[in-house]
Design goal:
Elements: H1 10-20, E1 25-28, E2 35-36, H2 37-53, E3 61-65, H3 70-80, E4 84-88, H4 94-104, E5 108-112, H5 119-126, E6 130-135, E7 144-146, E8 165-170, E9 180-184, H6 185-198, E10 206-209, H7 216-228, E11 232-235, H8 241-250, E12 255-258, H9 260-269, H10 274-279, E13 284-287, H11 294-304, E14 308-314, E15 318-322
Parallel strand pairs: 1-11, 3-4, 3-5, 5-6, 10-11, 10-12, 12-13, 13-14
Antiparallel strand pairs: 1-2, 6-7, 8-9, 14-15
Amino acid sequence: MSDHHDQITIGDVVRRHAAASPDAPALVAEGRPPLSYAALVALMDQFQQGLNGMGLGRQDRIAIVHPSNSAMASIVMGVWSCATAAPMNPDFTVGEFTIHMRDLGVKAVIVAADAGTPARSAAAYLGLPVIEVESLEDQAAGMVDIRPGPPGIAAQPGRVQPLDLALVLTTSGTTSRSKIVPVRHRQLSATSDYSARLFELTAEDRCLNLMPLFHAHGLYSSLAGTLISGGSLINFPDFSSDSFFRMLVTLRPTWYSGSYTFHHTICAQAPNFKTEIEQSNLRFSRTASGHLDSEIADELEAVLGVPVLQTYSMTETGRISGSPQPPKIRKRGTVGLC
């Protein structure tokens, strides 16, 4: 990580990791070889060439509608390398997609090649090109192929710069109407670097991400925070207790991140998976996107044998505060340094 993390992009950092440790795993999934940092950079270059060739480049907003698996992580990184990502909930209706695409000012829509998503109908209604991405399931985790679309000339081709927009997101709308949040690459790098330092992440760490990659929680800390530290990421789009505890053993994550609903389920089911917990490699878990009851946090720490780190963030700002790693003092029911 850099002392000047607000002057670089996530892509810059990933390229540095690839140059230093090209074979280090970046994305991991069950039943597939890991995707190395070198292979991730090659995918990013493929996206840049493909999107620039379709007339899309820096500052152009591209909607991404895809399940939150390893392929989605690759697609987000590919768009981040040369344009602005607008990840969207794949469960939206045609009307919701239409409103979000229009309000966010997207210029193209990326979808899975085999997906009959209503995002296609919304794109057609708005006159937006649809870019298909095929997941190569017989290859490394996250390997995808971007299918060529109509050719064009990008107004701003090449790699993104720190002051370019990395993301346009919408807030949850819990206190008022949803707001549009633009996030520059320098802001994304800064907040992700802060997460990595707060959690004391290293290249040896592996995150099991339970959050969707259209949500700031999954994008900022799980995806960007992991890659900025040189670690590896497991995306888990279809949560189940059996799969979660199995992955603790088979994929060896050192931490996992999720909202309180996941932690409640994991805590309730943990007594049924004592062997998996004993064999796990966890060193902490992270909770955000809502308040986790102190009683549940205490019980979860007891059954998993690792600290539960509480964080407070906003889509607009990224990380605001977070509980430190032991042996630093934590005060249950609060978020931050005591």
